[in-house]
Structure formats: structure tokens, C-alpha cells
Design a protein that fits this description.
Length: 383
């Protein structure tokens, strides 16, 4: 969608410049967020903090406005600033950011006006149930939701094991295979799934080793009606091909931020332990140089988030994989650098090890990224 096609009520420029946004996000991250990070790790869902960050424009900087296209670099930097302090909150920023992307790119006037406006200003929060579809398109698993066409929309049934940034009045973007009757399903439909819709049951998840405060639930749908007002895309493949690079690229903010947080904690013990830490691998100066290089690469990719070429997407997947691998190494090395103090249950260092594991397993996981890079290097997604 061009900025000029946007509904009139959305036509306003961001309140803050990219630099002002970053400074404001840093103040929130290093103040109230830092104080809540341990509670979030243990299960506190930081709804008011997410609203505050949304109010600054931290999860909508990438969206188009009347004055021009969105700024992906600013959105990624804001996410990194938060992830540096709390990876779980950085992940929820990503959930909110990609859900906003789905709404804006849907081109459905019922979603691009008030629904998107409330999403942008944080009065409504939502996530994304696209792990399963992304893995389906990468031929890793099959679609878990099935949609039957009915008058005015679809009836959708099935179960999604885990979707984050949810609450009883929240929502997520989801995809279902459209029932082809006697024939196998030929296409899919993408829609906004509201947790309070009749036929939707939110289920508590088993305890995770991290990310406990991310508002993650299982969703069970039984004949849930999805009307045309909530349709994001049908068919979905061209839509996904259009947004997939932006979807993956935004996650680099989490990887960069968690890595930076790990490096910070290595420097924190340098004066005291540098005399012995110098014998470790992955020292903070070396990791910082590698991270700065990755950051520069991501900022360059962020200039053209809708480049639809396969080469560009492979480059994005590769940067995301590098981010996940660097994040794992940095978190591990931070623990080596901090020793026993980093092993305390209250330490951000051991929390960050678990956050780095999540960066590596959340879709697209490292194994998924490598499979996609291998597949796309020889073939393109079927139209
Ligand atoms: C804390 C958390 C938050 C998440 N938030 C989201 C989200 O917001 N949106 C989203 O779409 N996805 C979400 N996911 C899913 C995530 O993105 C990945 O899909 C998931 O971690 C598995 O990815 P994988 O590629 O490693 O798959 P693998 O683990 O290799 O394989 C996954 C397959 O294993 C099966 N499986 C094995 N054990 C279990 C189990 N105990 N429960 C259920 N299935 C099982 C599933 O059927 C699935 O097909 C979340 C996961 C976690 C742990």
C-alpha cells in the first residue's frame, strides 16, 4: 500500500524523530523496564509498559504514514534498545510490530482505520500466530487451522499450541487452510483472530524456561466465525511473500539487543575479573566488533524491507541466523565472564542465556533458517 492510499484518520507523521524515539525508548528500557525485567521473566505481563512503548511509536515506526514510508531501521533499533534490558519485552514488541504490519498491508478498510489506529497507539495489543504457516510454507509442518467457507466469511477450527502477546481482549494474525471439499485445500486465508470471539478458548501453556511474561497461550478454535471485516489476505501466499523479509528482519532487533545486553555484562566485571577473563574466548571487544558489523548490515537491509527478490530474502535470513548464533555465543560467554554471580537465579546474565535460546528457537529457528536458505538457493516458494 502506498502512503497516499492510507485512510485519512491515519494520516499523521510520527510524533518523534528517529533519534528522539530512541532516546525515549532507552529511558523507559533502563528505568521502569529494568526494574520489572525479573518479574516479567517470572510471568508478569507488562501491559502498561507495552502501551507506553506503543504510545512513543516504538512498535509502529516501521508503518507507513501520509508523509512517507515507515522507518524499519528505527523500529529495529527501538526493539534492540528494549531487548538489551529484557528479551521477553523485545519479543512482545516484535509481536505487536508484525501484527501492525499485517493490518496495514491487508488493504482491508475495516482493519486499516480504527483497528490499526488503536493498535498503533497501544490501546489495543496483539500478536502473530504465523509460526505454523511459516513452517508450512518452508515444508516443515502442515497447517493446524482449517477454514470452511460460509455466508459472509469462514468457520475456523483447530488448535495453535502457543501464541504470544495475548490477553482476553487481544488478538493475533492467523492463517487457516480453506476446506476444498472433496479436493485437497488449494489456498489459505489469513485473518485477525480475536481472543474473545465465540468459539475461541485460551489455554494456559506449560511453564517455559523463559519468556514467561509474554502473554503466551494456546488457542483452541471450534467453528469460530471469521467475517470479511477481519480478513487480512486471501489467498495468503502472495501476501506472505510480500511481507516475509520485513517479518524476519524485524526480529534482528531482538538478536542485536540481547547480544548487546550480554556484552554489557562482560564489561561490568572487567575491572575485577579481566586479569583472568582475558583467557576466555568471545571477549567483549571482539563480540562488539562482530555485533557492530551485523548491525550495519541489518540497517542496510532495513532500507528496502519490501524488496521481493529471493536474493534479498536469503540475505535477510542469513543476517537473522547470524544474529541468533551471535546471541547464543554472547550470552554463553557472558556467563563465563561473570562466573558464579551470573549463575544466581536473580542475575540478568542467566536470564539472558534463556532469552538467547528463545531467539534461536522462535520461528524461524536456526534450523528453519538454514533449511530455507538451502531451499531458496535452489528453488522459489511455489506461487
Ligand atoms: C515462549 C514461546 C512463545 C511463542 N510464541 C509464539 C507466537 O507468538 N506465535 C507463534 O506462531 N509461535 C510462537 N511460538 C512457537 C515458536 O515460534 C516455534 O514454532 C516453536 O518454538 C517450535 O519451533 P521449532 O521450529 O523449533 O519446531 P520444533 O520444536 O522442531 O517442532 C515443532 C513441532 O513439534 C511438535 N511438538 C513437540 N513438542 C510439543 C509440545 N510440547 N507442544 C506442542 N507441540 C509440540 C509440534 O507439533 C510442532 O509441529 C512460541 C514458542 C514459545 C516457546
Amino acid at each position: 500500500m502506498n502512503a497516499t492510499d492510507l485512510p485519512r484518520e491515519l494520516i499523521h507523521p510520527p510524533l518523534l524523530s528517529a533519534g528522539e524515539l530512541l532516546a525515549a525508548v532507552r529511558t523507559v528500557a533502563q528505568g521502569p523496564l529494568a526494574r520489572q525485567a525479573e518479574a516479567i521473566d517470572r510471568g508478569h505481563y507488562p501491559k502498561s509498559l507495552l502501551r507506553e512503548l506503543a504510545g512513543l511509536g516504538a512498535m509502529s515506526a516501521h508503518l507507513d504514514t501520509a508523509t512517507g514510508p515507515g522507518d524499519y531501521g528505527a523500529a529495529i533499533r527501538a526493539m534492540a534498545e528494549v531487548s538489551r534490558v529484557c528479551g521477553a519485552t523485545g519479543f512482545m514488541m516484535w509481536c505487536q510490530a508484525v501484527c501492525g504490519l499485517y493490518l496495514q498491508q491487508s488493504g482491508n478498510p475495516a482493519l486499516t482505520s480504527e483497528v490499526l489506529q488503536r493498535h498503533i497507539n497501544g490501546s489495543a495489543l496483539g500478536g502473530t500466530a504465523l509460526s505454523n504457516p511459516m513452517k508450512t510454507y518452508a515444508q516443515i509442518e502442515s497447517l493446524l487451522l482449517k477454514a470452511t467457507p460460509v455466508a459472509g466469511g469462514y468457520r475456523v477450527s483447530g488448535t495453535l499450541p502457543w501464541v504470544s502477546n495475548l490477553g482476553p481482549d487481544q488478538y493475533c494474525g492467523a492463517v487457516a487452510a480453506v476446506d476444498g471439499g472433496e479436493q485437497p485445500s488449494s489456498h489459505e486465508v489469513m485473518f485477525l483472530l480475536r481472543c474473545d470471539a465465540p468459539g475461541v478458548e485460551m489455554r494456559e501453556c506449560p511453564s517455559f524456561s523463559g519468556m514467561e511474561g509474554t502473554g503466551t497461550y494456546g488457542l483452541r478454535l471450534k467453528d469460530c466465525f471469521i467475517g470479511t471485516d477481519d480478513i487480512i489476505a486471501c489467498p495468503t501466499k502472495p501476501f506472505i511473500v510480500g511481507i516475509r523479509a520485513a517479518f524476519v528482519m524485524l526480529q534482528c532487533g531482538m538478536a542485536v539487543g540481547v547480544t548487546q545486553g550480554a556484552i554489557d555484562t562482560m564489561w561490568a566485571v572487567e575491572a575485577q575479573l579481566g586479569h583472568v577473563n582475558q583467557f576466555l574466548e568471545d571477549r567483549p571487544d571482539a563480540l562488539q566488533a562482530e555485533l557492530d558489523g551485523l548491525n550495519q548490515r541489518v540497517m542496510k537491509l532495513a532500507e528496502t524491507p519490501f524488496d521481493s527478490s529471493t536474493e534479498f530474502f536469503i540475505d535477510v535470513l542469513d543476517a537473522r541466523a547470524h544474529g541468533a548464533e551471535l546471541c547464543l555465543r554472547a550470552a554463553q560467554s557472558a556467563l563465563m565472564h561473570q562466573g558464579a554471580r551470573g549463575y544466581l537465579l536473580s542475575s540478568e546474565v542467566q536470564r539472558r542465556v534463556r532469552e538467547s535460546h528463545f531467539v534461536a528457537i522462535v520461528t524461524p529457528a536456526i534450523k528453519h533458517l538454514r533449511k530455507e536458505i538451502a531451499r531458496l538457493s535452489t528453488e522459489e516458494m511455489p506461487a
